[in-house]
Write a sequence for this structure.
């Protein structure tokens, strides 16, 4: 089975959770052996793992240029010069009017999330038209709203089923006050999709109710985590005896509910002083949070170590006694799973998608700071609870693997390719055995 | 002749309220009164009252019918407060002389596994309460949730009980049938009555289940099953919670008519009813049953993993039955602490913390999850422990405490002994005086007699201290030695 996949990020270059999820999904599929994935992304680094075929969208031509093979053969990152010539044979319109064409007839991408994002999204879908004409595939899979237009375009050209993967919606990011342009792109993508994979039931309900989609074509496809590499497992926790650390780790922004964490911390510190709070990450609300902590008079026990990356993230988890994710609306939220891998008990909001597949976490409403404070205090003071959550958490998260996600996605693919439409009820029956 | 032993359990947990950690030390009231009243009223109206009314009728109308009740102390307290008519009905049933009452731990808790002294104390208290309310002294015991092991059997025997009702669990009985009287493997003074869970669950779990092959279950069919058991299997113990009638099986399923028809159908087939006490008195144990590890009537495993299965439950259990704490609670005279202690012990609190996968989604009261239940319970327990510890100074050992209490108790006895002596001596003195008057001896006698009084009284403390020894073991001994010391001084 050949899959044409559109994505915006892929490791090793990581901007956010999307890269990790894209990696996991493609890896999970590749383990089945008979799924061949062509992954199209704006600007690969050339250091991506080789289990899938990468197409570098900034080196796919949209305008015919007469170029010499010997001159260009070493210039490609991702796909090869042969691929280039194949793509050049499938140009479909005159795009000479476009700004920023290079000598290969390609449109460059900045990569990441630049300010002219909407132009880049548009260019991405123009190029998708070329790919859809030149590649052979059975199915289109588009990740996140940035690539929905590309997916829709490819579907229009090829007539192959389109599967879109909703990693987040604008409703989550904006607490309901959506950006109309983004919303229209999302809605258009969903309207054209044959199957909508949502990263949680929480997101699925948003898609059904806010984007008015048919529930039968929406499916909850939960994310997973990769086992920790040995060097991360070996990190020795650096804990101060008699002192507990409660950690928030993520962007400090409205969606993640950082103010509830500060308020709960203030409640805990009214009672006990041997607990430290750590708000790692950066974001637009960081200064407001520093003010809030000072206002509550807990600044001596409340720390802002800033943005953490790579190994530092895992060190933070290992050094913590509790991880808290008070998100107001979290489509999935992979952080608690990573914390659990490190043996750190997690408290998450009930509005987080990952809570749907986790039992050994404490779930509270994001606004219920009393409950959140109570849970923090309880884990910090009751060793039995800490040990239970820590040990059972590791066991539980070890059972959540991308291999299983790959099998579930494969079931969706089979339905789409086999009979041309998707039905969630049939899917649920078919994947009962994958536990 | 086959005999059916029918018993009903009456227990309702006291619902705890949402108790956050910042209330520790400030708020000492732990209960959700509204929910308690609602739950009790609901159960009483829909189940207890109609069921007991029917049973009362049956006791009056059927000569052969007998039944048995087992009430927990906390349930009695709550029924007295919110639904006293249930107690009235039970009293009326008791008056017919056809009902028996069982002893069980007052709190419906796990004391049998946690602390022997507290367990015995609880059973005694309940037996006393039952005697007071219904005029029946329980002879047979039933532990909370039928938790039983050899050790518990011998504890019950020590308390003078003749029998104990236990679950007829497959893994214990093996090829043996539950329809005989057995005896405890380590103590043959006590007989075991095995609850037949199949026949019991047919009524309390499956009766109104229309997908069950035997649905609809009629009394004649049910009694036929019993009648068709092998000739020699004569003891059929059927037990359930009383709220099975009316709550688990709604009244609309005609369960009351079914129950009412049981004695009639049984009489037609020559099957009688008996109370546990009668069975234990009249029948000899056919064999012993060995139960090295505690078992119960819970879940498919019939073990105690529903209450002590995970580390959180075991932690709460360890804190609750910590020896020093139990000693202090037993020693103290604070009634409110004692009542809180009873209510906090109820097994339901532990059940809410279970993380076992459940076939049917379990009711966790208002708790979101096991962790929530644990957090709330530990907060309350934290406050409770603090209160108990504040009662007495931190470094006073329980032994000392008991010694002091024994001393105080003994002082009373001592005083009465002394008073008796004094009155005897006074009487004698009067005699002397009257004699003296006759013989006209100078009246200096009282001065002489006074030291005599003391001399006679001196050995008295030792005497009564040894008397106490029988009931309170080590502390009393210490008290004696102490007294000896102080006497020397």
């Amino acid at each position: 089975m050949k899959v044409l996949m559109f994505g915006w990020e892929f490791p090793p270059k990581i901007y956010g959770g999307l890269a990790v999820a894209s990696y996991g999904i493609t890896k999970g599929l590749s383990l089945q052996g008979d799924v061949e994935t062509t992954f199209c992304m704006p600007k690969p680094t050339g250091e991506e793992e080789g289990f899938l075929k990468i197409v570098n969208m900034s080196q796919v031509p949209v305008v015919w240029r007469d170029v010499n093979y010997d001159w260009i053969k070493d210039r490609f990152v991702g796909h090869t010069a042969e691929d280039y010539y194949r793509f050049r044979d499938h140009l479909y319109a005159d795009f000479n009017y476009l700004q920023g064409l290079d000598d290969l007839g390609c449109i460059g991408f900045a990569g990441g999330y630049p300010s002219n994002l909407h132009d880049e999204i548009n260019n991405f879908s123009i190029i998708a038209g070329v790919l859809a004409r030149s590649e052979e595939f059975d199915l289109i899979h588009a990740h996140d709203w940035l690539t929905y237009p590309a997916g829709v375009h490819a579907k229009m050209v090829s007539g192959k089923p389109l599967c879109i993967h909703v990693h987040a919606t604008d409703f989550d990011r904006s607490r309901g006050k959506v950006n109309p342009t983004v919303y229209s792109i999302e809605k258009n993508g969903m309207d054209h999709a044959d199957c909508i994979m949502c990263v949680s039931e929480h997101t699925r309900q948003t898609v059904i109710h806010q984007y008015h989609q048919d529930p039968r074509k929406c499916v909850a496809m939960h994310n997973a985590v990769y086992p920790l590499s040995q060097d991360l497992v070996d990190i020795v926790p650096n804990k101060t005896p008699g002192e507990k650390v409660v950690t928030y780790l993520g962007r400090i922004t409205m969606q993640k509910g950082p103010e509830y964490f500060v308020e709960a911390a203030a409640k805990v510190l009214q009672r006990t002083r041997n607990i430290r709070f750590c708000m790692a990450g950066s974001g637009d609300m960081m200064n407001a949070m520093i003010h809030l902590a000072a206002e509550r008079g807990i600044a001596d026990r409340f720390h802002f170590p800033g943005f953490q990356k790579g190994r530092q993230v895992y060190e933070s988890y290992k050094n913590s006694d509790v991880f808290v994710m008070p998100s107001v609306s979290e489509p999935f939220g992979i952080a608690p799973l990573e914390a659990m891998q490190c043996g750190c008990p997690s408290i998450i909001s009930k509005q987080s998608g990952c809570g749907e597949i986790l039992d050994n976490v404490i779930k509270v409403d994001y606004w219920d700071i009393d409950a959140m404070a109570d849970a923090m205090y309880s884990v910090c003071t009751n060793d039995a609870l800490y040990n239970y959550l820590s040990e059972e958490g590791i066991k539980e998260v070890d059972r959540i693997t991308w291999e299983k996600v790959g099998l579930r996605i494969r079931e969706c693919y089979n339905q789409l390719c086999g009979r041309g439409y998707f039905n969630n009820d049939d899917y649920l029956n078919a994947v009962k055995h994958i536990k | 002749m086959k005999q059916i032993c029918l018993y009903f359990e009456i227990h309702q947990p006291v619902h705890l309220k949402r108790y956050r950690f910042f209330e520790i030390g400030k708020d000492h009231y732990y209960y959700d009164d509204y929910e308690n009243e609602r739950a009790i009223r609901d159960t009483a109206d829909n189940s207890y009252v109609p069921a007991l009314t029917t049973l009362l009728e049956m006791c009056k109308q059927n000569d052969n019918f007998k039944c048995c009740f087992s009430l927990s102390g906390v349930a009695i307290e709550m029924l007295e407060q919110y639904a006293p008519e249930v107690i009235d009905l039970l009293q009326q049933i008791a008056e017919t002389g056809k009902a028996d009452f069982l002893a069980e731990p007052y709190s419906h808790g796990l004391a049998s596994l946690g602390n022997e002294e507290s367990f015995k104390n609880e059973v005694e208290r309940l037996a006393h309460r039952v005697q007071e309310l219904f005029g029946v002294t329980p002879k047979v015991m039933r532990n909370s949730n039928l938790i039983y092991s050899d050790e518990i059997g011998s504890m019950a025997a020590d308390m003078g009980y003749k029998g104990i009702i236990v679950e007829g669990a497959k893994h214990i009985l093996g090829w043996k049938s539950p329809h005989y009287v057995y005896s405890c493997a380590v103590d043959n003074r006590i007989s075991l009555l095995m609850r037949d869970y199949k026949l019991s669950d047919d009524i309390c779990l499956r009766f109104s289940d229309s997908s069950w092959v035997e649905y609809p279950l009629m009394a004649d069919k049910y009694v036929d099953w019993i009648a068709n058991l092998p000739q020699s299997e004569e003891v059929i113990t059927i037990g359930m919670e009383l709220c099975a009638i009316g709550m688990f099986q709604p009244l609309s399923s005609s369960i009351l008519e079914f129950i009412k028809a049981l004695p009639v159908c049984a009489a037609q087939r020559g099957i009688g009813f008996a109370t546990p006490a009668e069975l234990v008195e009249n029948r000899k144990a056919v064999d012993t049953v060995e139960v090295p590890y505690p078992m119960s009537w819970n879940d498919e495993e019939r073990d105690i993993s529903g209450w002590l299965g995970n580390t959180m439950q075991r932690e709460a259990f360890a804190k609750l039955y910590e020896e020093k704490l139990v000693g202090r609670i037993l020693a103290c005279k604070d009634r409110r602490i004692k009542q809180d202690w009873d209510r906090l012990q109820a097994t339901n609190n532990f059940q809410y913390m279970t993380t076992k996968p459940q076939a049917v989604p379990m009711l966790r009261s208002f708790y979101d999850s096991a962790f929530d239940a644990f957090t709330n319970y530990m907060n309350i327990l934290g406050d409770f422990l603090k209160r108990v510890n504040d009662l007495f100074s931190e470094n006073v050992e329980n032994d000392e405490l008991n010694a002091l209490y024994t001393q105080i108790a003994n002082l009373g006895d001592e005083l009465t002994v002394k008073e008796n002596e004094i009155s005897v001596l006074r009487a004698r003195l009067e005699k002397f005086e009257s004699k003296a008057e006759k013989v006209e001896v100078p009246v200096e006698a009282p001065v002489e007699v006074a030291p005599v009084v003391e001399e006679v009284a001196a050995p008295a403390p030792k005497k009564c201290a040894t008397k106490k020894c029988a009931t309170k073991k080590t502390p009393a001994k210490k008290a004696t030695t102490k007294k000896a010391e102080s006497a020397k001084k």
